[in-house]
Structure formats: C-alpha cells, structure tokens
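Hi everyone, sorry if this is the wrong subforum. Our group has a chain we'd like a structural model of before ordering constructs, and none of us has done structure prediction before. Sequence below.
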Amino acid sequence: MKRPAPLFLIALALIAAPAAAKKPPKYGAAPPTEGGLLDDVNGYTIGKDGQVIHFNGLLIGKNGKVAKLLQAGDKRPEWLDFKLDGHGRTLLPGMIDAHGHIMDLGFALTHVDLSATTSLADAQTKVANYAANHPNPAWVEGFGWNQETWHLGRFPTAADIDLAVRDRPVVLDRVDGHALVANSAAMAAAGISASTRDVPGGHIERDAHGRPTGVFVDEAMALIRKVVPQPAPLDRDDAFRKAQEALLSVGITATCDMDTMPVDWDVWRRAGDAGALRVRIISYGHGVETALAIAGTGPTPWLYDNHLRMVGVKLFADGALGSRGAWLKQPYADMPSTRGTSLLDDTRLKNLMSRAAMDNFQVAVHAIGDAANAQVLDAIDELSDTYKGDRRWRIEHAQIVAPADLPRFAEHGIIASMQPTHETSDWRMAEARLGDDRLKGAYAWNTMLAEHVPLAFGSDYPVESPNPFPGLAAAVSREDAHGEPVGGWHPAERITMPQALAAFTTGAAYAAGAEDRLGSLEPGKLADFVLVDRDPLTTTDSQAIRAIQVQETWIGGQRVWVRK
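Answer:
Right subforum, don't worry. Here is the predicted structure as tokens:
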C-alpha cells in the first residue's frame, strides 16, 4: 500500500508553491486558464515613446509572454495557472547588458580576482594565496588589476609578480582586458627576451635597457597567450554556470556577448542542449571569420526558445585608456610620446566592415579614443552609400569623442553603446590622461540623447561589475561609489532615471535587433522581469539606487533565480 507523504513534506510543498488560483469545477467544462498573475506590484516599464508606464498587476500568458498590464481598477481573471502576491514590491523589466563578456566573467570568478585590490602588495598577497591553495593547473591566471587604483604611478612588472609566485608561470589581465602582466616564468615559457619584437597593434613595455618588463599591451598579449594552456570543456562549462548565476543574481535577463569565440558558442550550445541555458545571449563574433564559421552566411535564427542568437561581428579600432592604448587625436597629457594605438588602418577597417555587412551581420566596433571614434564614423559615412537601410551600426564605448563628432552619430542612426560605470571608475584617470579641456565630449550620455542618438547601456563586465544598478546610479548622478565628485563629474551629462532605465532595457534591446521581443513589458513581449527591494524611480539618492538588490529574476514567465 502506498504510504501518505509525511506532513512536513506537504507543508514544505505548500510554502514553496505559488498561491493557488481558483480551481475549476469538478464536473462540466472548465473555463480556459489564462496563465499566471503577479498582483499587487509596483510595476514599471518603458513604452514605445520612452515614457514610463506604471501598473500594479502583470498577467503572463501560457506562452511566457506578457498578456496584459493591469491597473488598480482592472478586473482580474478568475481562472489562472498561478497567482502571486507581490506585496507592493517594485517590478522592473529584465535588465539587458548591451556589452559584456560572458566567459571572461566566468573565468574571472574561477581565477584570481584582483578587481578589489587597492595596492600592489594586496595583489601580490592574493596571487600568492591563490597559488598556494590551487596547486593545479600549472599556470596561475587572474584578472582585474589596475595600477591607477593602486596609486602605483607605473605598470606592475614581472619582478613584482615574481615576489608572489616565482616557480610557476603567472599571467594576470588588466581590468580592461587590453594589457596583461606576466611573471618571469611565463615570459620564459613564451620565449620572450630583449630581442623579441613588438607586434602590429600592440607593444611590449620595456625598461631603459630595452628588456621586457612583463607588461604586454593589446595585440602583444598574444605573445604570452599562445603558450597558456586552454581550459578543458568541463572547465569552460563550469565558468559559464558561474557567470550565468552572477548575471541572473543582479537582474540581467539578456546580454550581448561581445567578441564571441567558437569555443564560447560551443559552451552555450551544450547548455542549451541540456536545458540549462537561462539567460538570453545575443552574440557578436570575434571578427568576420569567426562569425562566418559559427553562423554561416548571415545571422542565426533564435535558438533554444529565444535564448541564443548570433547577430553580428565585433571589431577593434583601438585599445583602452588605462593602458594608454586608446587612440587620440593629440598626445596623452601624461605621456606626450604617444597618441595610443590604431589597431586597424582605414582600408582594413572598411574592408572588414563591408565584408560583415555583405552578409547582413550587424557591425559593432570598439572605439574609445577620439581619433578611433572619428575613424569609425568616417568609415560608416562611406559605407552607408553602399549598405543602405536599417544597419544599426554600433560604436562600443564611445568614451572620448571630439565635440564636433558627437552629432555625427545620429546621421546614420549609429548606436552609442556605452557603460556608465566606466565614467565613475575612470574620471580621475581621464583627467590625467587628457586634461580637462579635452573632456567636453567624454562619456557624453546627455549630449548623445539631445542629438537623437540611440543609446544602449551595459557594463563591459568583467571590466566592471555586471550589476546594472550602480550603472543606473552613475547615469543619473555621475558620482562614484564614494559620492565623488560631489554634484557629479561634468554634471551636464547626467540623464534622468527613465532615460537610464530605457538605455538598459528598450535601448539595449534595440541595439541588438531584439526590440520585437525584449526590452519592455508591453503585451506580446517576453515576460522577462525582476523584483527588487526598492523603487529606483522615486529616489534621487544615488547611493540608494546603487544599493538596490534583486530579489527575484523571471525569464519567459518563469522564476529562474531567488535571493536566499
């Protein structure tokens, strides 16, 4: 005889289950159910014209899409699969990160994380402890160092890292991913010596005698990377699981992955095949050849029930400001011997953009310095005569733009894909690198909107945290985590909370060509949303906005993450 379930198991099931909807009668035809309802919520979404739409009930269809937004006086359906009481909590559309690096985030979570270190000594201690606690694999890898936050006044060196670990190769990526430092064992493994030449698009930092110091910038990083053992598929899968959990925990329901490699795509396909792909990924391949190898002659369809798609190609016009690789029109104020690095000449850039456009891949070009931004704008000017229609050219970062070039973004509907937390992290460094007079077009979110430029926000994780709420706080205040500078850095470029929320939702969806299904909670869109612990639209306290925590993350009308 089958025994009844223990009472404590029944009680647990009742606690965990959504509130039951009214049951249909036992006899006769039951009325059709209408999916699920989240009621008594403080709900917001961004409408087609950028206006804020407020609601207090969200009706979800059986197809995982939004069926209806309900107001206080609207009649609630009687027959439902489930009904949950939101208890007045704030409900927002799922956040979309317009520019991130999923696998890099995963590996940052599994390797040495130096992003919170405040000194070289702090970083050395972390590297030494990690190596002691992880005898395998043979190489020690890490991410996140920033000599600016260390107040070091120089790059770290191989000798600095040798003091932490001498007997194993160590390679540590700078926070922006555009430079690395290797210890002596790693340089020996790569055959690096004083006779090693610089490579096009990159350079090796050297001492007064011409000997490599251990820092490799931009394309020169490949000299070390080529000998670093590649992760096994199981390690890649583990890194993705950790990255996905991290994204869901901060309310990211969809993300653009910039610079996808074939091995990354394989990881996501394995997750999709296993039914373990929860976050939605819009992918941009690492160059034209990668996109063609993965997608064939054009963007892929949506795979795994709207969870994975490759739509474009990622190219690089220059490096980063922190490593002085960003390409400037005038020399760096704090190093007049250089203007940074141009990674592609004009002809090569236009050829690659043209090749991608031929097969209708969307083109996204990394450009940080004002010279790099001008180069990409010039290329789009020329190519737009041939490739007409809704191309949605993207410029990634658009950090330092000459004021005269800002209106040019709108001429061909170019999307400014920007990261608000870059400004709050970089403002002191930007002043040192350029001087105040050259910063009138820097991180110019408000000017972009005033010029009718499509604006999409992201974080560039793991360069910055994937958490969008510090990004929202930065966008409306231009103050960092310490509230500095008081009143905001170049405060004229602050934007409103509805504008910032739009850039993280509808703007990011538009930038990825996904506005037909993502970005808002209008009826017919996928029911991707988050429940948070406070209302970002009713406070002007940037620190309170920064501290917002996600309580639940829902994708396609299903709860996929809950804060414990």
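For your construct planning: Confidence is low (pLDDT under 50) at residues 1-22, 24-29. The radius of gyration is 25 Å.
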